Amino acid sequence: MIPAIGLLVGIVFGLLFQPTVPIWLQPYLPIAVVAALDAVFGAFRSVLDGLFNDRIFVISFLSNVLVAAMIVFLGDQLGVGSQMSTGVVVVLTMRIFANVAAIRRHLLKA
Amino acid sequence: MRIDASLDALLADALASDYANTQKTQFRNRSGRDSFRVLIVAASATLVTLVLGMAIAQTRLQESENSLTRNALVDRVQAADRRVQALEASVLTAQNDLIAAERSILAGTSLGEQAQQRLERLRSATGQSEVTGSGVTVTLDDAPITAETALVNEPGKILDRDLQIVVNGLWQAGATDIAINGRRLTPTSAIRSAGEAILVNYRPLIPPYVVSAIGNDANQIIGRFREGAAGLLLEELEATYGVFWELETVGEVTLPAAATAIREDTP
Question: What ipTM is given for this predicted complex?
Answer without folding.
Answer: 0.70
